[in-house]
Amino acid sequence: MDHIAALKEAIGRPDAVVTDPDILVSACTDWRGWYGGRALALLRPKDVSEVQRAVAACARLRIPLVPQGGNSSLAGASTPSPDGSNVVLSLQHLNRIRAIDASSWSMNVDAGVPLSAVQQAAAMHDRHFGVDLGARDTARVGGLISTNAGGMSVLRYGSMREQVLGLEVVLPDGSVWNGLRGLRKDNSGVDLKHLFIGAEGTLGVITAATLRLHPPERHSATLLLAVKDLDVISTIVDALLETGQVSALELMPTWAVELACREILRCRPPLETGAEWLIQAKLAGRRPVMEQAEEVAASLIENGSVLDAILADGAKQETLWAIRDEFAPVHKWLGHSARFDLSVPLGRIPELIRKLEAAILPIDRELRHFSFGHLGDGNLHFSVFRRLDANDGLALPEEAIDAAVNQTVWSMGGSISAEHGVGLLHRDQLVGQKPAEELRLQKRIKALLDPQDLFNPGKVFIPGTRDA
Ligand SMILES: Cc1cc2nc3c(=O)[nH]c(=O)nc-3n(C[C@H](O)[C@H](O)[C@H](O)COP(=O)(O)OP(=O)(O)OC[C@H]3O[C@@H](n4cnc5c(N)ncnc54)[C@H](O)[C@@H]3O)c2cc1C
Known about the structure:
Alpha-Beta Plaits, binds flavin-adenine dinucleotide, Uridine Diphospho-n-acetylenolpyruvylglucosamine Reductase, domain 3, 5-stranded antiparallel β-sheet, 16 strands, Uridine Diphospho-n-acetylenolpyruvylglucosamine Reductase, domain 2
């Protein structure tokens, strides 16, 4: 029996095994279009037992498999290898909110539920879910957990790891670990869920999660501040954080906000001051926060660190955050760019931007950067492109840019993957960044759980070095 027939028989539902090339192509191409592979088939199980049977069959037949949620990975983690030997195991049809327990401030959800559906379900029970990011309609719970996604609310609620109370996982041998517990305290041994959070599908398939819920943000206000220059960023951040109410804090270059408004949203830019940088912050809480927002904006204008400000509450804020959501599409206007997701200790973002500028300009005077990010987490998204009107047909010197950026970040004690994960994009660079003992320990855990190396092969771990 060939592999396709064997998978159909094992899962017990033939239409769970898709081989139509038109459907396979989108599952095999990543969101940015950087990584394209080929798959033997796309598996679409509907429940845990179908996942279990699919995984057990893959183990028996030695078929490599790539777990996939919304395929919105920005690290090339969610697509199959080019050799056509992998199956893609989509979790999108496991999409039930199993239960919401408002009194224990938690919910049990299938791995294929989109982030926006989790947020809406929490809100319907007067609760708040603590993760938000631009891909909220695409990214699924299993993918968010497997990449330990961050986004715009990490400052207040932590990343995806902090939202996970329990997990249900199908292990590479096809057995199920049911760790769906909503306990806040449980010191009864090694906390296994942390192995799978951020493992990028290399250790098992997450089929469901118990997620932590928070009190609702009943009142919120958004400040958009035109920043005098990079030197005053710490003053602004400190003043905002002292309010104790900040739930999002973003740094944005003015030109990108203008481009997003002009080219994508077809609206007027919200502030026109000549300032090079903008800071957008959300204050949120149980009581009205507008007065506090006005006070902090006034004091920052008075001490000269902010040139102008906009304050918005209610639905008006959505317009401001919609502009920030368009930063991923802004890249399309830049042509090819080298992209980085960097983190440094809190407070050192201005220094990082200056050092990165100094590191890339000697490579090519026509290089420009698109720097934005989660200021309150020390996380900078840094994309390097050639000046839009350079028009000289020269290619981006990617190797030299990579080396310069990585070196700069490491010299500051930072990380080259703050929140997007490792995937294929950063796999090889980790060898220079992480202590050898740390990498060795990770490979030993991988070898223990997935001895046949079938789970998301080639991602995170360099092939052939598993047991080094
Ligand atoms: C417009 C846009 C904005 C973004 N903004 C942010 C941001 O602000 N912050 C941030 O952190 N990230 C951001 N991301 C990237 C983010 O990592 C992904 O959106 C998300 O975390 C991945 O979820 P997914 O369901 O799409 O997973 P996929 O892309 O399908 O998979 C990602 C990884 O998880 C694994 N995986 C998926 N599901 C499972 C499962 N059930 N069990 C085991 N492994 C699984 C895959 O094998 C792969 O390794 C953004 C992406 C886009 C496109």
